[in-house]
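User: Quick sanity check before I run a bigger batch. Here is a single chain. Can you write out its predicted 3D structure?
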Amino acid sequence: MSVGSAMERLRRVERSRLANLPTPLVPSPNLAAHLSDRPLDLSIKMDAETGFALGGNKVRKLEFELAPSRLEGVTCLITAGGPQSNHCRVTAAAAALLGRRCVLVLNGPEPRNPTGNALLHRLFGAEIRTVSDRSLREEFMNREAREEADRGGKALVVPIGASTALGSLGYALAMEELLSQLGTGAPGYWIFTSSSSGGTLAGLTLGLSMSGRYDVHVVAVSADTKAGEMKDHALDLARQGAALVGWSGDLPEDRIITTDAFVGEGYGKPTPESSEAIEVFARHQGVVLDPVYTGKAAAGMIHWIRTGMIPDGQKVVFLHTGGHPALLG
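Assistant: Done. Predicted structure follows.
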């Protein structure tokens, strides 16, 4: 199938419209001047401003996972995540909008005074089930689905992060949107983003493949997962996503770079570098990052800039995937 035909098929895939699109691409000269003594063309793609339920990257993916035909007869949405999960926040809000029950399976103890996303989960009306370890989440989601069926209802289990082949199509479209905003003319483009469950990276990879652009690199900074495992999983999802829209072009594996060098002690645990990045973005751009995902992704980008890993004259984009409620958690 040709690029044009595949893109048209991608645009026609059914979805529920939740996001305010396109999100802005914001030039960031003040931040660039703070980060580098050399000329630096830096912009921020503000997917924190997708709008629905305080925005973030999960909105684009859930549009596909919660397509109208997938919701027929569904009485309950079930998903899982950590206590400050952005994905759970948006899923709970979508359930409220759509008039369905929502059950969230969260690892960790029940907070005495919920804050940040934990507060929003409850504000949106989600029923919370806590498990002691993240390895138990899938088992409990399936149990909740069976119990909903026993009551005569029907559950839709949304995988963690909506990181599925279907969900990844949201970021294939996002890549098309971003490349249109960037245009051409620079010798190269570097897109930095956070990554964990792989759906956003998979979509960006598929979108880049379908674009026919060879001047773009994507650097995915892990929040928790080993770099090789994260890349392999994202490429697998991208291949599955390509099959959904009939695209058979090669994936740009050599231009997809993953790193786990900024994880620190683990998921959701700040590092000195991520704390600095949060402060730098706030003071020099007026942009709020979070300690789980975007703070560490920004730390990775800052390191690449400061150490000269990006060739002079090439444009840099920070894809801000949202998550700022976790900063207040």
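Residues 227-245 form the longest helix (19 residues).

User: Great, the batch can go ahead then.
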